[in-house]
Known about the structure:
The protein is of the alpha/beta class. It contains 17 helices and 11 strands.
Amino acid sequence: MAEALDIAPATGKLGILTPGLGAVASTFIAGVLAARAEGKPPLGSVSQNAHIRIGKREESNNPLIRDFAPIASLDDLVFGGWDPISANALEAARTAGVLQESDIAPISGEMEGVVTMDAVFDQRWVSRLDGTRVKEISNKYDQALALIADMEKFRIDNECDRLVVVWCGSTEAYQQPSAVHDTVAAFEQGMKDNDDNISPSQLYVYAALQSGVPFANGAPNLSTDLPCMIELAETRGVPIAGKDFKTGQTLIKTIIAPGLKARMLGLRGWFSTNILGNRDGEVLDDPENFKTKEESKLGVLHTILQPETYPDLYGNIDHVVRINYYPPRGDNKEGWDNIDIFGWMGYPMQIKIDFLCRDSILAAPIVLDLALFMDLASRAGQSGVQEWLSFYLKAPQARGESEPEQDLFIQQTKFKNTLREWMGEEAVTHSEAG
Ligand SMILES: NC(=O)c1ccc[n+]([C@@H]2O[C@H](COP(=O)([O-])OP(=O)(O)OC[C@H]3O[C@@H](n4cnc5c(N)ncnc54)[C@H](O)[C@@H]3O)[C@@H](O)[C@H]2O)c1
């Protein structure tokens, strides 16, 4: 049997802070509060609903993940966040229009009590939004210090034992890393010099890591994936994960593509388009913000299909992704996929998918699971990139130079085997002997 990690127990309260308290964050908070009130696990969350096999099949040992690994209990969670627009989680939920009033009413008092802190916000990075609840501090280093002070105050006021941050803020405009992102020293100097290449979301990452608080990035913009942040996470001994919650069309893509490849069916083209009308859709209507999202969405097929290894099947793919802002749909996105495949003797076939999904309903359980598992990783003494959580992410970070794994089923195996190893159990190989 493998040796278990020495994992500190999940005693006391865990504060989950979200920079960005919009549709996703308010739906996440509402779902946890409702589940707590009803005494039922929230649906869609792997940490709360999934079982994990331990040992050989014939041992029939299949506990719930939450009973197997010492993750924090839902009863011990406290919520907070920053937003330049929303005043509190109740207002955010009502504005987002994801949940019905009948679901919000029983928890409205608690939702109203989740009051946002003033944001570090700059319209240069999210041109479609006009924020008023913004810190009036002009220097970026001072802004980072103010975020550090916010976290400390939240921790004390709410008597939290630990904190974790999950970025649920808007997608920032497209950006390439620059010299200021190379090292922690360059980044610190850059903040003091108000370097134009430093965006608000990067200040939140810096502030969290300096405070020893794990940080997961749910949006596709640069943040935990910058070299300076990876260095800071490793030197401070803090877990990071990113980026971009794997929901909707990309979730389906990473379910279908491994299936096609498993049976050696060829792919000639994949056209994905969708309509959505929430604030996220409005932000992504700006070409610079959409470009950030497009990069993250386009990356997924390559590592799954391995065109270098299978040039005849996957060497010539047209992959197109479109997002169209269409207000009448609100958060209820509709995504269409047209997949042109081919099989025996090269005969073409088509697959059409019409996914009438709900963006925030798919993203909310990911926020919960990332927060709980990042906290677990921290208590298990882990630091730097948490590859095992790529299961939840559209453009996952990998350690070092290796390519990120995109296949949902390989990601799931890695996720469960990591939990088994940490708890001192053997990895499950699914071989005839296993
Ligand atoms: N819902 C999904 O399926 C999904 C999937 C992947 C990624 N995402 C990403 O998650 C993020 C949140 O999505 P959403 O639907 O809740 O969007 P939203 O627009 O409803 O909420 C985002 C919130 O972030 C706030 N914000 C913007 N800049 C900020 C800053 N600097 N500091 C603090 N707050 C800031 C905005 O005021 C807004 O309230 C987006 O970046 C989105 O692209 C969502």
